[in-house]
Amino acid sequence: MSSFKYPRAGGGIPMMSRRAAFGLGLGAVAGAALTGCGSGGAPSSGAKKAAVPPPTYVAPPVYPGAVVPDVLGVPTAYPSVPKKLAKTVTETPGRGGVVRHFHLTWGPPATPLADNPWWQGLNERLGVEVKVTEVSAGNYDAKFATMLAGGDLPEVVQLAGGRYGEIFSAGCLKAIKQGAFADLSEILSGDKVMEYPNLANVRTEQWQACTINGGLWGVPIDIPVEHLEYRYRKDWAEKLGFPKPPADADETAELLVAMTKGNPEGSKKTWGLTAFPGMALELAYAMFGVPNNWKYEGGTLTHATETPQFEAAIAWLAKLWKSGGMHPDALALGTQTDRYRGFVVQGQVGMAVDSAANFHFPTSQYGKVVAKLDGAFAAFIPPGHDGSSKATFRKTAGVFGINAISAQAAKDKDRLAELLRLFNWRRGPVGSEEWYYQRWGADGEYFTRGADGEPVAVEGTNLDADRGAIAYGLTPQTWVFPTAKECVETNSQMVRQSVASPVERFRSDTLSARGAQLDQLFVTYIYQIVVGSRPLSDIEKYREAWRSQGGDQIRREFQEQLKRN
């Protein structure tokens, strides 16, 4: 065994932003300026108001063959498509004209409308022409700021990009507070949501996560409460003398170094880990039990970076870097998601983390790799650092942002109702005709139903490219793949080992204002400690700078809210 020994500490889960975790380290989030918009059919002020009941929750239907988890927040999954489809929307929801979307994308842009049967069919079913401004996650902040500065907001805007466990970036929060978006709380509160019954399938805690100052600012982008899954090259590990998954942090480091230096693919260059922060930070935080952003005990908040667990995790990463267990360009790869994923697809990465579904959908980027390697790219749950404790993970409310409606559009009550009808159609539950079209398209265009009722791809088509960003964030989380049982079991165990952030529901004005500055501190100190440009002792300098440049004020703001609730 090597000398990878670190302080023993436990408790908490990784402190990473939703966007960083989902996009494998997409970098710091900058603030954005905007001009406010007026109110109309729905209130649009960020001022505090009396809270109203959250929308009523109605569980979505469950069909025969379902793998129903016993852990809240893990999606119900299906090994095959339900044989009979239900129609949940009987009338065309739109009334014609154009609906503009400002839309996140995690891959290449969608095929243009003229050459895109799926997009054309979506427009036909919705009864509107959907025009999309596609925004890659890496360019989100700049594009968002430019859009707001222009003053002409699309009818639908996806708000996301928070740091330190917040759902929204500083720019998004500022836009909400200055009245750029419609408050939907009165319109959807209680049983009023039943006018849009598919929206009633949104869980109460998901709505609550999108509530700011008593206002409900959009329809949640649905994700599992723990949406990640870890994979490692089991075949490499066995070849390198590791017949079982690593049992502790020391063995994990040894395996990662061996994957980099042991030539498991012969002459092809390989690495244990390729991206920092991304996979590397997520893995270290999990093994060493770094709290989920904050730890709350005895009426006092301790930030994750102030804990011994954090220091142990960074010490492990610094030693791993020095030993050669990471790609030499890991700092750059932390913001280059496509390049990072390319290494996985090319068979050059020993460990990876991504959304669970991306590993299980047979037609997804990673799903194809999993299928090709036939069990060699295996799921595993990282160990606790000492081999006896368990790794701990970051539990969320199951929200990665919201689909907001501009205040300008909401001035027209009929227009607002139309946009909510469109959301209702897009939220068609698993087993509905609306859901099926958004997942597989019209029968015969991209897929046909085989003899067993399963979708069979039409040769020469690429639905993923045609859907592109247009499908992201409006449909409910869908787990339909042959490995449904395996996925649910792995995800359920991770959720059992996860902890929620104590400040999940709260907001800090100082964090919104100074978040980008604090992110840069992390880069200046922690990144450089990991790659050996600063000593580990500079963690204390980082902590002092963090506290003095806003951290202590953020702590006070959160503590005041915790004491009132």
Overview of this structure, please?
This protein has 565 residues and is α/β, with parallel strands linked by helices. A 5-stranded mixed beta sheet has the order 3-2-4-14-7. It has a 3-stranded antiparallel beta sheet with strand order 11-8-12. A two-stranded parallel sheet has the order 1-17. It folds into 2 domains: 80-226 and 397-480, 3-Layer(aba) Sandwich (D-Maltodextrin-Binding Protein, domain 2); 228-395 and 500-505, 3-Layer(aba) Sandwich (D-Maltodextrin-Binding Protein, domain 2). The radius of gyration is 23 Å and the shape is globular. The chain is built from 21 helices and 18 strands. It has helices at 18-22, 117-126, 140-150, 170-177, 185-188, 204-209, 234-239, 249-261, 278-288, 308-323, 330-333, 337-345, 356-360, 365-373, 407-410, 413-426, 433-440, 463-467, 484-496, 509-530, 538-564, and strands spanning 77-78, 98-105, 129-136, 156-159, 211-212, 215-216, 219-222, 228-233, 294-297, 300-303, 351-355, 377-380, 393-395, 399-405, 447-449, 455-457, 479-480, 498-500. The longest helix is centred in the last third of the chain and has 27 residues, at 538-564.
